[in-house]
Known about the structure:
Blueprint (H helix, E strand, L loop, with lengths): L2 H4 L3 E5 L4 H12 L3 E6 L8 H5 L5 E5 L5 H11 L3 E4 L6 H6 L1 H19 L7 E5 L25 H24 L3 E6 L1 E3 L9 H11 L3 E3 L5 E2 L1 E3 H18 L6 E4 L7 E2 H11 L6 E3 L16 H7 L7 H16 L4 H13 L1
Parallel strand pairs: 1-2, 1-4, 2-3, 4-5, 5-6, 6-11, 7-10, 8-13
Antiparallel strand pairs: 9-12
Amino acid sequence: MTPSFWHGRRVLLTGHTGFKGAWASVMLADLGAKVTAFSLEPQTEPNLWQTVGERVAVESWYADLRDASTIATLCEAAEPEIVLHMAAQAQVRESYRDPVGTFASNILGTVNLLEALRSSPRLRTILTVTSDKVYANAETGLAFAENAPLGGSDPYSASKGATEIVVRSYAESFFTPLGVPLASARGGNVIGGGDFSSDRLVPDLYRAARKGVPVELRYPAATRPWQHVLDCLAGYLGYAEYIANRGIADPPALNFGPLTDESMSVAQVAAAIGERLGNGNTWKQASGSFPPEKQTLRINSALAAQTLEWRPRLDATETIAWTAQWYADFANGKDALELMRAQMSRYWA
């Protein structure tokens, strides 16, 4: 990523009230980009964006991707050069509770955004963020490369796999003829300081540590490609810059995940972060029955390394340490924005 590329660049960001979106907002604003962002209103208390947003140079709007008319109006006003589409219904269990809302937000919401962007006069690049769960996962333990078949057995994964098809359709039908690259980024399981979402591992660990109780884990043996939010976002921005400079989405999709030998189970991550937060009794097996979730998931990021010379700067131990330290400092009264900027400075050093 070249900082000068982003300085003064008109960027449209969706999903800025989410965890990754809030970090992306601060990163882009600090790079000097002219950021317009829209998202649903904050869904948690506390919320990272709500905590830092008034001090970040971002034009912020609340809007629902399913509202095509409002999205069209916002896109027209923003006149973006670069679009980072990160907004989504991003939770597997919520997709079981509300499959219709999940499909509408993730698939139709993406269609509404892309349709609105077709007439954007300054547009140079669109990067849509999907998920590591877009692949047809037979749980063989193999790491998925970008050419693996798409699929999804739960509504969330299916919605993201379908979004990939929508993106390719719009790229080939509309944006490639205009000379505007449209690509997708598939990130691993992203962790880091400031996520306060419900029903997500690290925020649950933070809340449990504050109360001195164990987290109840549904599937403690499940493995995921954990990575720090800064590694993931560095990949996204580097990819957007790469295809913008070349004027073509080649490759059309990239995985961003940890080193291939760093797969960790939910229980291992829970124990490591819980202990660092001072919770001696970090987790226990949840009782009851739960919707099925894939137990093994790995992605191969070799193409990103080859194309962008991108590699995660933080290994698993550092990712856990940086995440836990952010929450510990926040719990001790330190300012969230100062903590974010301190970690970003340390990351880029």
